[in-house]
Amino acid sequence: MRFPREFKPKPTNWKVVLTTAIALAALLFPIGVAAMPAGAVVSTGDVPRGTSEVERNTSDVPRTSLYNTDAASSLQVVVNKKRPLNPIDYLPKGKVQIGYAWVAKPAAEAYAKLKAAVSAKKLGTLCINSGYRSFASQKIIHAAKVAQLGKAAGERLAARPGHSEHQTGLAIDVSTTQLGCRIGPFGSSRASKWIAQNAWQYGFIVRYPSNAKTSITGYVWEPWHLRFVGVELATDMRSKKITTLEEFFGLPAAPRY
Ligand SMILES: [Zn+2]
After folding, report:
1. What is the 166 CA–ligand 1 centroid distance (Å)?
2. Is 246 a residue of the active site?
3. Which PANTHER family match (predicted)?
4. For the chain, what is the mean pLDDT?
5. In this structure, which topology does domain 80-248 adopt according to CATH?
6. 126 touches 174 (CB < 8 A)
């Protein structure tokens, strides 16, 4: 591993904290779990979104220690054909609507800035062709493609449910209104070329950056598929000239399931 794992609090300490928290919550809020302090959730192994931001501002721990590639709610979660979301039917909280798409809030805010920058450069008006997709809708898309094209060809186009970045709410397929928001022609646009070079400043990466990386990511070049990972990680990847999450975190290649 090229990066330290996230901190695991001593189980005994957390049992005490958790027990106290539950007791307090039961006393103060009869409805229980929903009112539990956010810290208590850490014992489930799922790091709540926002924790790293708090630590980032208050500690001098190297920032790479705050990357969490495993928790479904983490901005840095690595999802591929070998790494399904956990839980597999994960449902992100806090989505906002942009056009016809829904996007997780941090990605939506960054997208607004990216869109403004593309417009300011007079490269076109960005639009979202596809954003959040639920486990259930991905199941339908996957089944339809497999029925239409057979398993091998179908799975080259549609991820199995639970294995798509779109289920995190952090992935968007973009195009421009000038292209009718179609993703097919986007790769040859000036907007696409600018995004490939500059999206990192807004916390996005072109997640499937070239056909040369298909053996690592499992997907052909998808210039329209942007994944929000946060400005820090996107900047780190840019400065180290590493273009895939698998290579950056030293994770196994995922060419197939
Ligand atoms: Zn996509």
Report:
1. 6
2. no
3. D-ALANYL-D-ALANINE CARBOXYPEPTIDASE, PEPTIDOGLYCAN L-ALANYL-D-GLUTAMATE ENDOPEPTIDASE CWLK
4. 83
5. Muramoyl-pentapeptide Carboxypeptidase; domain 2 (3.30.1380)
6. yes
Distance between CA atoms of residues 103 and 57, nearest Å: 26
Please answer whether residues 168 and 79 qualify as being in contact, where contact means their C-beta atoms are separated by less than 8 angstroms: yes
pLDDT for 35 beyond 90 = no
Distance from residue 67's CA to the centre of ligand 1 (Å): 23
pLDDT at 199 over 80: yes
Please pick, among 222, 232, 246, 247, the residue that the annotation labels catalytic.
222
Integer Cα distance of 159 and 166 in angstroms: 10
Q: Are 102 and 131 in contact (CB under 8 A)?
A: yes
User: How much distance in Å is there from the Cα of 100 to the middle of ligand 1?
Assistant: 15
How far apart (Å, rounded) are the C-alpha atoms in residues 229 and 125?
23
CB 70 within 8 A of CB 79: no
At residue 244, does pLDDT exceed 60?
A: yes
Give the residue extent of every domain in the chain: 80-248
Comparing CA positions, the residue from 178, 191, 249 lying closest to residue 224 is: 191
pLDDT for position 213: 97
